[in-house]
Structures are given as C-alpha cells and as structure tokens.
C-alpha cells in the first residue's frame, strides 16, 4: 500500500464551475465576432427548396384560399415563414455555433417585419369590420320584407308537408341501406343530407361514405355507386344506383381521399375563392351534383360574410362551373338548385338585422326593438323553393315568439310575419305532454295554415327515431292540440287524418273557428304521391306498395336487442317475421300457439320485416 498522501489542495467549487463551463451556451454579449456561415447563397437556395416542399405539403393539407379576406391565408404564410427561418437556421449551423446564431438573428429582420405587417393588416381589417363601428352595415346584410301569412301559406298543400326531419330520415336511409347486401358491408349513409324539392316534391338526398379506409381502398376506383333519396311525405327511401342510371359512380365527394376529395378538387380549380360547405343535390333527372357556395367578406376585411356565387360540380365527372348570384336568381335553367345560403348564414344575418338596426350600443344597453331568432329552425317547401323557417323572439329569455321569418335558401329573399304565439320548443312540449305515456318526442315544427289559423305541424317519434304519429298545435294558443297515433290508427294516413279531426275539434271547443269548419278539407288520401321508391325514374304519382299478409299460429318466439330496441321474431308457417316493440306494443302479449295475422311488404327466404302483427 502506498504511503503517499493524495493532494487535497483543490477547490471543489472551482472544479464544478470548470465542468459546467464546458457545457454552457455562451450569451450573445459574450460573442465578440459574428461569423458569416460558408456558402450562404447555397444554404438560402436549399432553404427555399425545402420550404417549398414542406409548403406544398402544408397547402395540400390545409387548402387555404389565396385571398386576403381569408384568415387561413395568413395562417398558411405564417407557417411558411416559420419553416423557412427554421430550415435556414439549421443549415447555417446556428444550433451549435453561437456566432452563426447571431448572424441568423441579424438576417431575420425581414421575415419578422413581414409577419408584423401581416398581423397589422389583420388587426386593422378586423377593427374596420367589427360590429362596434359598422353596426349599420351589418344590419343591412339582409333585406327584410313584411308579408302576409294568410296570403303566402294558402297554397301550401297539407298533403305535401314533410313528415320527417334530418334525424328520422337518416334512420330510414340506414335501414334501407342495411337491407341491401351489395352495399351494407362497404358503405354507410352520410350524417349530412340536403332537403330539396325534386319534381316539386320534398325529399332529402344523402350521399354514401366508405365504411372505413380499407373499404375506400377496395372501392375508390369505381367511386360511390349510389346515393339515398328519402321521400319526406310517403317516408319511402330509394337507393339511386348511379352506375346503372348514369354509367358511373360518384367519383368526387367529401368521403374521398387525395385528389378526389371534393374540397381539394375545388381548391385546385379555384385557388382564390373562399368556399363554404358543399351541399349534395340532384337535378330533375336525378343526376347528382355538389353545390358549393362561394363566400365574400363585405364589411372590413373579415366581417359581413355573404354569398357571391356558387360552384356547380358534377359529382360523377368532377367538371365544375361558377355562377354568380345574379345568374342563379334569374337563370331558369338553374331553378333546380335549392340550397345556396346555409341555414346558419341566413339566421346569422337576420340576427345582425334584429340586434343592430338601432345601433351597437342600443343592442347592449337599451335594447329597443332588439329581436333575435328563436332556438332551432325548420325547412319548408314553397313556390318550388326551399325556405328556412324560424321564430322571432326578444333578446331576453322568453317562451313566446312575436313573429317568424322565412328565408329562401336559393335567393335569400327574406319575409317577416307578425304572427306571434308559442315558441317552437314550447309547442313541441305541448305535443309531447299529450302523449307522454308513450314516451314519444317531436320533430321541429313546420308552420301551416289550417282554417286561417297559424298551426304548428310535427311528427312524433319513438326511441328508434321512427315516426309513431302526428301532432298539430295552435300558434296563438298552445293548449289547442290534435294528435293521431299509429298504434291506434294503424296507418300513417289514418293517423294524419285523426290529428286533423282532433285539432279542428279542439279549435271548435275553444270557439276559435265556427261549427262549419270541416276536417275533410285537410285530410290526406291513402294514395299519397311519392317520388322515392319503385318509381324514382318515372312520374310522381305512384301509390304505396302492395301489402302482403300471412295468417297462422306462432310456433316459436325469439327476441334480441338491437340499438336499444327489443326485436321479436315470430315463427309463422316456417318463416320468422320480426318487428320491434316500439312498432307494435301488442307483440309483448303474444305467446306460442296464438293465431296471428302478419302484415309485411317484402318477402324473403327466412327473415321478413313485419309492418304489423295482430292477434286473431
């Protein structure tokens, strides 16, 4: 063992500081020389090339409009500038050499000034278009004209009133698609549908979506083969096969990827336009198109959103053409277009009018004559166009409306009616209360004229979103209600007629109408016209499909639960007929050995969907 004593003459703090100094990043005031990196020109060129590649990818994904009135435009260029500075910083070696970092900082003045100028433009553009300074301009975005309810609504045919809303029509479309084996495993019905007038008849059309990305790989070559058309009156659903009818599937849609994705396809064709959400529509020949509103900012730089035109895109070929609003309003060949102005936009513009007509400060402090639309809105067909309907109420919480508006979704014509009464949600509650033992809910009301009485019409539906009945509620007096239920009346026609009878009877009881009022004037015929179903390519006067029946003893009963609904499978004459409890409450009382009559529409080899089951 060594007898030498280790040298203990050292300072631990000095050792630690010396160790830390080897890893310390020098501060800028310690840099005596700013060194220009070698081959700066080459590094600039490479930075431009790399930024261009990354920018192309960012543009492909972000799809900004190259328009000073679009906030996406500024966001995109902020990203580009940041990428360029970052790439140049790395190529110059500034990450490891402080003297080169200082060089890059000194050369970044121009990008910083450019960003500052863009931010300044955005701030000035926003301030110049804010409601505080431009209240009058916002209030004049839409021209409101007072109109007569009795005069405008007299020609609305009670038999053509939509009985389904977006949610209930989606359920029917899902059911119809699920019954077709060639489609159900590959596609699903889109949650987005468009209510249009097809051959002067209200329908909802919805495109299909690929069930998942693997189904997209499997089917994208041929496109989407069909779309769904739901007749809102007869409640029939047609699957319109585009391949058979037009020789091609839908090649461009929001569900596609890459260049066939609709919004990307449109952006490459119209790089400077501000595009709204496309609407799926069909012309009078049932040919599918995409109608994409083109927006403009009319107040300041970012305010006063309005529609200046629309792009019509052939869903099969992708061919597009832009039309101004003047052309769409006046060109008769474009009358088949129904939706250019979205429901959200027309309601927003009316709310600006209702709030700001008497100035910005009045809308906040005094609130004289301030009004807004009520919560929720519906869609009705009138004059071969589609109109957004919603009530008008005070800016404070209220349960009543003092009027309502209709706005044409093609032309933006807006009519105001001074017919006050129950708010839509209040009318829905009145209808639901009358059938609360069934647990039904009500669709958003549609306004009708019955015996010169503004009347809310709504469908009643169960937990499975299938229509179970109808209700009529008086606008002025929400206690005047008439209902008709399928469980009692056994058919949609009978349920509608029962609702009318009960409603007019309630009007008479309250002395609102005289005894001469006749419910027969409003009853619908059993052979209600339809455009969806077996005759989608033909005339619009088809009748309900023939009902089939079978009578026999129940030899077996099975049950299952699908989407929260209990389904009963009854074996009659070696075939199983299935029906949900919500569609037929009597099925709960049935047992083996009971003799029943099953009514159904479409036969199959083993499992058959029943429309009704009755004990004999």
Characterise this structure.
The chain is an alpha+beta fold. It has four domains: 12-128, no CATH class; 144-152 and 365-521, no CATH class; 161-340, no CATH class; 548-615, Nucleic acid-binding proteins (OB fold (Dihydrolipoamide Acetyltransferase, E2P), Beta Barrel), CATH 2.40.50. The chain contains 18 helices and 27 strands. Strands 1, 11, 12, 13, 15 and 16 form a six-stranded mixed β-sheet that branches. Strands 6, 7, 8, 9 and 10 form a five-stranded antiparallel β-sheet that branches. Strands 18, 19, 20, 21 and 22 form a five-stranded antiparallel β-sheet that branches. The longest helix has 23 residues, at 40-62. The termini are far apart. The model is unreliable at 534-545 (pLDDT under 50).
Write a short abstract of this structure:
This protein has 616 residues and is an alpha+beta fold.
Topology:
Elements: H1 12-21, H2 40-62, H3 71-91, H4 98-107, H5 109-128, H6 135-139, E1 144-146, H7 149-153, H8 166-178, H9 181-184, E2 187-197, E3 202-210, H10 213-219, E4 226-231, E5 237-241, H11 242-246, H12 262-269, E6 274-275, E7 279-282, E8 288-299, E9 303-314, E10 320-324, H13 325-330, H14 343-356, H15 360-364, E11 371-373, E12 378-382, E13 385-394, E14 400-401, E15 403-408, E16 414-417, E17 421-422, H16 424-434, E18 441-442, E19 446-450, E20 453-461, E21 467-474, E22 481-485, H17 486-489, H18 492-509, E23 548-562, E24 565-572, E25 575-580, E26 595-600, E27 607-615
